[in-house]
Amino acid sequence: MAQSLSKLYVHIIFHIKNTSVKIRKEESKELYAYMGSVIKSNESIPIIINGVSDHVHILCVMSKNIALAKLVEEIKRNSSRWIKTKADYYKTFAWQGGYGGFSVSPSLHDKTKAYIANQEKHHQKLSFR
């Protein structure tokens, strides 16, 4: 085959550092949009980004030209720098070192997308911990 083809759906989850301030609702949508732009700049396609005050879920189509660890590093590094410019409240903001990254089969794409969209409702019943 002369060309490379891939369509890798990936569900990424990461948490704020235990000593960090929480993500306020008023900045969350703008933060998610910014993360989407970072994903796009890394040749990947954001599908949905959502979360709650202490963690974020991302569903994206990952580029064949980047490793998952590098993509997550870029999202976390850039979004951390960006959010610190939004308010003094965020001067101590930091993401936790680790992350979860899970491949999603096309048959579970819609179910995963719905799960991410409903994070607020989901965590009213069940905490991240």
Could you give the topology of this structure?
Blueprint: E1 8-15, H1 25-41, E2 45-52, E3 55-62, H2 68-84, E4 100-104, H3 109-117, H4 119-125
Antiparallel strand pairs: 1-3, 1-4, 2-3
Question: What report would you give on this structure?
Answer:
The chain is built from four helices and four strands. It has 129 residues and is an alpha+beta fold. Strand 2 and strand 3 form a beta hairpin. It is globular, with a radius of gyration of 15 Å. The N and C termini lie far apart (46 Å).
Summarize this structure as a short list of keywords or feature phrases:
alpha+beta, globular, 4-stranded antiparallel β-sheet, 129 residues
Query: Based on DSSP secondary structure assignment, what is the total number of beta strands?
Result: 4
Mean pLDDT: 92
**Structural classification:** alpha+beta
β-sheet strand percentage: 15-25%
Task: Figure out the total of helices.
Answer: 4
Radius of gyration: 15 Å
Which bin fits the share of residues in helices? 25-40%
Outline the biggest β-sheet. Answer: 4 strands, antiparallel
Head-to-tail CA distance between termini:
46 Å
Strand order of the largest sheet: 2-3-1-4
Stretches where pLDDT is under 50 for at least 5 consecutive residues are none
Reading the helices and strands in chain order gives EHEEHEHH
* Shape type: globular
In short:
Helices cover 39% and strands 22% of the residues. It has helices at 25-41, 68-84, 109-117, 119-125, and strands at 8-15, 45-52, 55-62, 100-104. α1 (25-41) packs across α2.
